[in-house]
Amino acid sequence: MNEPALTQKLTSPDEADRYRAVQTLANQGAVSELILALRDESWRVRRDAVNGLARHPDPPGIIVTLLKMLREQHQDIGALNSVIAVMAASNVDVIVPLVELLAGDEADLRIYAALILGHQQDLRATPALLNALDDPDANVRFHAIEALGRLRAAGAVEQLGQLLASGDFFLIFPALEALSRIGEARVASQVVPLLADPLLRAAAVTTLGAVGQTEVVEPLAALLDEPQAPVNEIAAALTAVYDRYDSQFGEGTHIADRTAQAISETGLTRLLDALPNAPAASLPDLARVVGWLEGATTARALAQILSQPAARREVVEALVRHGHHVTDLLITHLQDPDAETRQTVVLALGRIGDPTAVPALIKLLAFDSDLLVPTAGALAQIGDRRAFEPLLELLGHPHAVVRQAVISAINSLGHPEMPARAAHLLQDENPRVRESAARIAGYFGYDECVDLLFAACRDADAAVRQAAVENIVYLEDERVVPTLTAVLGEDEASVRQAAVRALVFVEPRAAWPLLLAALEDDATWVRYFAARVLGQIGFVEAWQPLARLAQADPAFQVRVAAMEGLGALGGVTAVTVLAPFIEAEEPDLARAAVTALGQVAHPAALPPLLSALRHDRPELRLHAISALEQRGGQGTAGALQWTAATDEDESVVQAALTALAELGTAAAVAALVAFTANPARRELCVAALAGLGETQIDWVARGLAHEKTAVRRAVVDALARMKHPYATEQLKQALQDEDTAVRLAAESALAVLGGSSELTIDN
Amino acid sequence: MHFFSETLNLPDSAFKLLRDLIHQRTGIFFEPGKKELLADKLSPLVIERGFASFMDLYYLLKYDNNEADWRQMIDALSVQETYFWREFDQVQALVDEVVPQWASMHPRQTLRIWSAACASGEEPLSIALALNEARWLERLPIEIIASDASQKALTKARQGVYGGRSFRSLPPKLKEKYFTAVPGSNGRQWRIDEKIHGRIRWQLANLVDEADVAELAAPVIFCRNVFIYFSPESVQNTVQRFFARMPTPGYLFIGASESLFRLTTDFALREIGGAFVYVKS
């Protein structure tokens, strides 16, 4: 249907007609028609018009038209919401006209301008929004506060903090929310007094959780003494403080310790009373906070909620910290009707490692078939030899996962009778037992079992032969290569596959002819593993057969394995084979080519990787980033920086930033420092910078001279999180910064770093 | 809690490849935070197959494309935790409102009710029990089809034997009336009355497979607690397939924690007998 006909449909009384028309117009990018549809009475029609316009964000005049609509039709809520949605989603620069609107005469328009500016993620709007905090209209002030929060405008903290003392509830709530989003710790002291106000209490608790550090622990703990304390919110706030402190300074346990000291008997009772009826969303935080407190009462309370999936991980962590004190308590829960709960208890008992749990766990091996794997794992962790015989009983279990868990457990026991028992079991009538015994005997290389292992290579059962073949290679015995040769010539595919995989442990010269022959095997998986092993042992002569396989094998997985092998061999010849596959239609081939090129150090590998960074498919660009990160070398940092700055896909941008951090060169660090100016990238970059090593501290500290305040402020955070004496020394430069926010952040960070040093000494 | 993932590493790149392959084939989508869960579910398959990495499993599923391997995969992924009388208000609405309305409109026409993700069978059996209690099974030709993508789940459903957790919501008098204790199980296992069990036609079906859905089209579909594991795209496609094949009027029952609100769908949400139902009218 052509556009005029579709435009006609937009006026149809039938909503379904209009809906279909707008979908087609959206696909065609018919901007003026879509703008018309923004006024439609149907939300579905308006939604698809918005999506259509957002997909074509930069047609000439669209913003003028939208602003005109905003001025003229802001009484029409549907049209207004649609205009706001398009503006928020578009990439067009709307800051200047919106700032003008924010200073206009009409209050409604000022409200909408503030609203949209908040969604633009552009800090240029901050001064205008700060001015709007003095707007005569309370609704404008409300939306300006919200917008500053959305922008995470650190420069607004002082004025927002002052609003908290204004007594105006209408503005205090959004101010608290905005401060939570901005996340500046220095505002906590202004929030704490609000805990005394029953109306504002819960919101203040949440904000303290979002911004606070050590100093908020005591006020939050004290609040638990109040009869109407918002217990769930307090627990959430304390865990948020813990997580942030742990991420910034690696000292989360300091928050847990302070909490444990600060919570009174009354507070503890309130927490324990809240546990049984807490909503699933609050349970993990509550369980964590209760877990920070020692004692039999807390352990019993935690054990009571083991059946709650929402908090299982937290409860286990807490109970494991209680150690052997809770073993008996946990054993009583091994009879729980819920299999997941029993599984959790087994896991916890294994981690606690208390031998008194062994009899109960052994009993479980006999009666709880659902829990064999975790129980064997727990017995392995405890390492008590009473489990030896019961575990041996399970070597013939029909499921390979159970056998593997049991073998691991037996191996970890190191029982002195095992060599003799293994020799005996290698001759058991049950093939699964012989298979398991072959794996144990091979793992340890028992002298008593060597001949039996070679005999097992000719066992009637293929799985036994497979296990034996995989394990004889650990023996220093002249029969290994002839046996593998015989297997590769005669046995069935699954055993040949095992033999090929085992060749990685054989002397390369002896393995080479066998692998070369295996590349011609009829079975796909034999060729696949042969190609992989050739790559692993790095046999240079293999490049030609691998190239042939990469280009022409009928099975895709073999081609992929051959490419991996070529990447491992490296050199310009590998590049010539691999590079064309970047454009392969089959995504796995393209991905394998990019990954393999990342292994090639030769400069010839760089251009194809750079071209992969511009590939249409985001997933291939992601692989190119990983490959470049692995490869490093000249040109890599620049390419990653370009990708981080220009790519439209958020996951690609994040991967590029992470790769820059991994690269860690001066250029990469400088790029990361510069990217902290973007509020949306700030946290990722700061975390990445904080993870750098001693040799890179100078490069990070150069950011303290950056022209942008936001960058200098971020560098302060990064240096503080490094927790390195030299980084702390560099941090002191920021005490002389021209901007108050940077100086205050430096002071605050240095105070925390000083405090944690003292703690270390105390400990 | 995670066991296998501690020994078998699932790198992010392999997770994404496997996740997308599984999504394409089954509609089930694993969010990034579910990597360990996926690793735990798939580790037994890697080990059983004698592989050393998840990528080997990925290539096996993708390129060997063997039906038996995929069946094992679906068994490993399927969630079989369900119980009788779960979210019973919807079954009640079926019995009290939808079936009487059908009976008045089509007294001689067979009413097909499809339980599209029946797991171990508690849902279709609850429907059959409720219909039997209201004597609809003797008054109206009713066909109950129960399908699931997991062969393992269907095998259990076909056996008709259930343990204590399945009865957590079933009124005790109904348990007494329709179930008998399995000899030698010490009262831990109960077998459903064969007259009820025999009313169900059990069938293997994948909801993302157009042909499977077409074959089982019905005016009443129960598809509950499945969409929470699907991507929005898979939900959209599945719902569209249901709608396209469903006669008018048609009724789609989805789980209480699920919603089609964010999707473009031609179903209309209605409250029928105190339960929310998506209706094709």
Report on the architecture of this protein.
The complex is a heterodimer of chains A (about 775) and B (about 280). Chain A has about 775 residues and is mostly helical. Among the domains of chain A are: about 570-660, Leucine-rich Repeat Variant, CATH 1.25.10; about 665-763, Leucine-rich Repeat Variant. Chain A is built from 49 helices and no strands. Mean pLDDT of chain A is about 90; it is low at about 755-763. By secondary structure, chain B is an alpha/beta fold. Chain B has 2 domains: about 5-75, Orthogonal Bundle (Chemotaxis Receptor Methyltransferase Cher, domain 1); about 90-280, Vaccinia Virus protein VP39 (Rossmann fold). Helix content of chain B is about 45%, strand content about 15%. Residues about 1-5 of chain B have low confidence and may be disordered. The interface of A and B includes residues 312 and 340 of A.
Topology:
The complex is a heterodimer of chains A (763) and B (281).
Chain A: H1 3-9, H2 15-28, H3 31-37, H4 43-55, H5 62-73, H6 77-89, H7 95-102, H8 107-119, H9 126-132, H10 138-151, H11 157-163, H12 169-182, H13 188-191, H14 201-211, H15 217-223, H16 231-249, H17 252-262, H18 265-274, H19 283-291, H20 296-304, H21 312-322, H22 327-332, H23 339-352, H24 358-367, H25 372-382, H26 388-392, H27 400-413, H28 418-425, H29 431-444, H30 450-456, H31 462-472, H32 480-490, H33 493-502, H34 508-518, H35 524-537, H36 543-552, H37 556-569, H38 572-578, H39 587-599, H40 606-612, H41 618-631, H42 636-646, H43 650-663, H44 666-675, H45 679-690, H46 697-701, H47 709-722, H48 725-731, H49 740-762
Helix pairs in contact in A: 1-2, 2-4, 3-4, 4-6, 5-6, 6-8, 7-8, 8-10, 9-10, 10-12, 11-12, 12-14, 14-16, 15-16, 15-17, 16-17, 16-19, 19-21, 21-23, 23-25, 24-25, 25-27, 27-29, 28-29, 29-31, 30-31, 31-33, 32-33, 33-35, 34-35, 35-37, 36-37, 36-38, 37-38, 37-39, 39-41, 40-41, 41-43, 42-43, 42-44, ...
Chain B: H1 12-26, H2 35-48, H3 54-64, H4 67-77, H5 88-105, E1 111-115, H6 122-133, H7 136-139, E2 142-148, H8 151-159, E3 161-163, H9 172-178, E4 179-181, E5 189-192, H10 194-197, E6 200-204, H11 210-216, E7 220-223, H12 232-245, E8 250-254, E9 268-272, E10 275-280
Parallel strand pairs in B: 1-2, 1-7, 2-6, 7-8
Antiparallel strand pairs in B: 3-5, 4-5, 8-10, 9-10
